[in-house]
Amino acid sequence: MGAHISIPMYQRAIPQRYRLVGQKCVKCGKVNFPPKAVCKYCLSSAEFAPVKLSGRGTVYSYTVIAGGGAPPEFAEIARCKGRYPVALVQLEEGPVIIAQLVDVPEEEEIFIGMPVEAVFRKIYEEEGVIRYGIKFRPA
Ligand SMILES: [Zn+2]
Fold this sequence. Notes:
This protein is mainly beta. It has helices at about 5-10, 70-80, and strands at about 20-25, 30, 50, 55-65, 85-90, 95-100, 115-125, 130-139.
């Protein structure tokens, strides 16, 4: 009999930093994500209120990464697929984050301003540990 992992256990195992919770600066009102020690917009406040991000956004810019130039966390995907799109996604709440685009059959289908939504996907596996993170797919 194999090890049994319940769904709640699995959910607790997802690190806090992968949840879509940003910080709303109490001084300037802008949303920081990923979390920062000091607001990156006004650079003068370290007081934040947690804000749940919708995960919806639009493609601000994108590039297609091929084989050799892949950073380590993408190297496994590059080995499997050869090419894959990475985008700067502007979230509804304002922050711009970089993430891989998934569920895009043809890279020609990607365009600036394309609506996307966040999904949790396997990012890479290292020494048997699977790392999950945020990717985006067409909304
Ligand atoms: Zn601020």
